[in-house]
Design brief:
The protein has 73 residues and is mainly α. It has helices at 10-19, 26-37, 51-69. The chain starts with 9 loop residues before the first helix and ends with a helix.
Length: 73
């Protein structure tokens, strides 16, 4: 197995150090954390809603997006 050197900020180093369990290496911490969270695509289609609920959701999003994109003066 090869090794790669990566650079992280002091803040990230401290965060990773806090995540360590027992004598876990930093590689093991990173591997565990990335596996635990999975990929976004794992969640796609997991939320079931009716057409009416979807319509209400998108109506609300469009309303709030319009305020975010074009704030009133």
């Amino acid at each position: 197995m090869g090794f790669k050197t990566i650079t992280v900020t002091e803040e990230v180093y401290k965060m990773l150090k806090m995540e360590k369990k027992g004598d876990e290496s930093f590689s093991e911490v990173i591997k565990r954390l990335t596996k635990e969270h999975g990929q976004l695509s794992d969640s796609l289609g997991a939320w079931k809603m009716t057409d009416s609920e979807a319509e209400d959701l998108f109506k609300s999003l469009r309303k709030h997006w319009s305020h975010w994109k074009y704030p009133s003066e």
